Amino acid sequence: MSSTYGRFPGARPRRLRTTPAMRRMVAETRLHPADLILPAFVREGISEPVPIGSMPGVVQHTRDTLRKAAVDAVSAGVSGIMLFGVPEEAKKDAAGTVGTDPDGILQVALRDVRSEVGDDLVIMSDLCLDEFTDHGHCGVLTPDGRVDNDATLERYAEMARVQADAGAHTVAPSGMMDGQVRVIREALDGAGHADVSILAYTAKYASAFYGPFREAVGSSLQGDRKTYQQDGANARESLRELALDLEEGADMVMVKPAMPYLDILRDVAESVDVPVAAYQISGEYAMIEAAAEKGWIDRDAAILEALTGIKRAGAQNILTYWATEVARRL
Ligand code: PBG
């Protein structure tokens, strides 16, 4: 392996760091706009976009500004958009009914974006109930207040059908219910949507870094998600979730959050033959923006470094709220 000059003073690794051109040439990891997927929020009943305080630069879109964000993403070379719907507060109920209403905000937004950009973006929808339930959980509850796995699966099957009908190319189940990928695949196939793909949130950890997302979707979660999202202490468990999702028919798999779980991302990437995505979540975004605002960190460099690390760890695609900005910069 090592050459005659394998040791100092012959060996000087700094030779390959001497100029920007040299560093560019030998870079092992390159971010490309097509790696990136933009998560976007659309809120019902507003006429101006509403800024999300804990995510400076991110807004709850109106239907119109969402269309524009999709067009901007296309022109920047971003590959996909992941849509989250924020319904009017009064429309939330225990079953998350508006999540399966063909005229619910998420379905309306899917149709809007599909008609605006067609197939120029991969249009994805978060498939979960938490944006639509009044209790903020990702599923329906049993009478004693626990999240009912199997009853929730029926809701997810219905959601998959309405989202695909509305124009989603890809549905992304994020609720961590057991068996969700299987029932969604069957529901899609049964409804004539065999070509609609599933990006499974495969390893999804219960995380404090989702904090700003609650503001983004106006959710007031009662309790926590620890009975369905994974415990951050566990790594092997993700390989089990992975095996199940693949067996159930996942076309692509995701690890989430990204930065505190890069080891999981590496484990998953090394053991699959399907595309692997990672989600740089709201709290990861907020940390960098907040530190930069205080002048404690070089914002642009930190963003690129974080994204490069996620790709280096094994992500082929990265969901990031900076997608359009970064794609333009690359
Ligand atoms: C569930 C969902 C969440 C996120 C994406 N899909 C919230 C959660 O699981 O608690 C979080 C994304 C982020 O924090 O940026 N609908």
TrEMBL record:
Keywords: Heme biosynthesis, Lyase, Porphyrin biosynthesis. It is an enzyme of class 4 (lyase). Its EC number is 4.2.1.24. The keyword Cell cycle does not apply. The keyword Lyase applies. It catalyses: 2 5-aminolevulinate = porphobilinogen + 2 H2O + H(+). Pathway: Porphyrin-containing compound metabolism; protoporphyrin-IX biosynthesis; coproporphyrinogen-III from 5-aminolevulinate: step 1/4. One of its GO terms (molecular function) is porphobilinogen synthase activity. SMART domains: ALAD (SM01004). Belongs to the ALAD family. Catalyzes an early step in the biosynthesis of tetrapyrroles. Binds two molecules of 5-aminolevulinate per subunit, each at a distinct site, and catalyzes their condensation to form porphobilinogen. Homooctamer. This is Delta-aminolevulinic acid dehydratase. It comes from Streptomyces ochraceiscleroticus. The gene is hemB.
